[in-house]
Amino acid sequence: MRCRFALVPALLAAACNQVFGLDPATLRDAGAAIDADPTCATDPGGLPDEDGDTVRDACDPCPQLDERGDGANDADSDGVPDGCDPRPGVPDQQRAFYGFADVERPGEFTYRIDDLSTGQADWSANDGDLRISGLAPDSDALAELQVGRATVTVDTIYRLEIDPSPKQVIGVWASIDPDSVDRERPRGMDLVVATLGAVAVDPTVVLNDWPTALVQTAPADPVIFSIGARVRLLFTCEQVPAPRCVGSVRDLITGQKYEVDTANQGLVPTLRAGAIGLRAFAVPAAFEYLAVYVDP
Ligand SMILES: [Ca+2]
Ligand SMILES: [Ca+2]
Ligand SMILES: [Ca+2]
Predict the structure, then answer these.
(1) Centroid of ligand 2 to alpha carbon of 70 (angstroms)
(2) FRET partner for 53 with CA separation of 20 to 30 A, picked from 35, 99, 113, 247?
(3) Which is the CATH superfamily of the domain at 2-294?
C-alpha cells in the first residue's frame, strides 16, 4: 500500500529529474573539511542557500541554520558548529545535505518505486521544501548514500500547513535496507511520530521490521500534529560500542521535546547498510531540509 520514490545521488539521473524537478543533495566526501575545499575559500555565495546566511550550502558548515553569533562556536571541534551539531560532544561530519531548492540540476533523483493499490502520494520540491501531498496510506522518500553501518544521524524539520487527516505518521529513516522485499514495512530503523486523531502522540521506532513503542520522557502532546506545527526530528543509529538508536522529537513552537532510546528498553536494533529517508502516512507535510551526518 505504498508509493515510494527514491532519492539517489548521481549515477542514473535524468528521467526522474524531469519528473520531480528537485535540486541535488550537497554530498561531502568523508574526511574532507569544507574549509579545505579550494572553491569555498573564495566562495562568492549564491544559491542554493537554505538558511539565507549568504554562504552557499555546499560551503556552509551549517547550511540549515544561520549560525553566525553564538551558534558558530564548535565546542567539540568536529567542524560542525554548535548551532546545528546533532551530537554536541561527539565527533560528527555532515555527509549530505538536501535543501530542496527550486534550482534544478541533473544528478539526484534517479528512480521511483511504486507499490500501489490504494492511492499514490506526490512528493515535490518547491520554495526550499519537499512536500508530500495526497493521502496515500504510506509513502517514503529515500536517499541511498552508501554510508554503511557506521553511525548515521538524520536531521529534518517538518511543518504542517493544512488540516491533517485523522491518522497521521511522520518519520525519518536512519537505517534501511532498500532491497527489502516487503515494501509495506521494509527492514531498518525508522523514528516515527504518530497520532490517531487529536488524542495522543506516540514516538515509535520501527525496530528491524516491526514498530516498537518507546518510553517517552515527556507527556504526549498532539500539538505536534496541529496546523502550524514545526517539529525537528533527530535520529541517530550507531553500531559501536553496541547497536543502539536514539531519537528526539522537538516542537520548535512550544519547545516541548520527546526523547527515545532503544538501550533504555533493552532493544538491539539490526542496522542496515543502505538508505536514509523521510516517511509520511496520510498527512500532507513539508520537510524543510534533510541533513545526514556520519562518523568522521
Ligand atoms: Ca549557515
Ligand atoms: Ca561541533
Ligand atoms: Ca558533534
Answers:
(1) 12
(2) 247
(3) Exo-inulinase; domain 1 (2.60.120.560)
Q: What are the grid coordinates assigned to 167, written together? A: 491518522
Number of Cβ within 10 Å of residue 13's Cβ equals 17
- Distance in Å, CA 99 to ligand 1 centroid: 12
Counting ligands in written order, which one lies closest to the CA of residue 82? 2
Distance CA 77, CA 7 (A): 31
How far is ligand 1, taken at its centre, from the CA of residue 157, in Å?
15
Residue type, 114: D
Distances (CA, A) of 138 to 3, 5, 135, 184, 224: 7, 12, 8, 8, 19
**Cα–ligand 2 centroid distance for 98 (angstroms):** 20
Q: How far is the CA of 89 from the centre of ligand 1 (A)?
A: 20
CA 295 to ligand 2 center in whole angstroms? 12
pTM: 0.82
For ligand 2, the distance from its centroid to the CA atom of residue 89, given in whole angstroms, is 7
pLDDT of the chain along its 296 residues, tens only? 334 444 433 322 222 222 333 455 676 765 556 666 778 888 888 888 889 999 988 889 999 988 888 888 999 999 999 999 999 999 999 888 888 876 544 334 333 344 444 556 677 777 788 888 766 666 777 777 767 667 999 999 999 877 666 667 788 888 877 677 666 667 788 887 776 555 455 666 666 555 565 555 555 566 777 788 899 999 999 988 998 999 888 889 888 888 888 888 788 888 887 777 787 776 778 889 989 899 88
Helices then strands, counting H and E runs in the chain, come out as: 2, 17
CA distance 238 to 242: 7
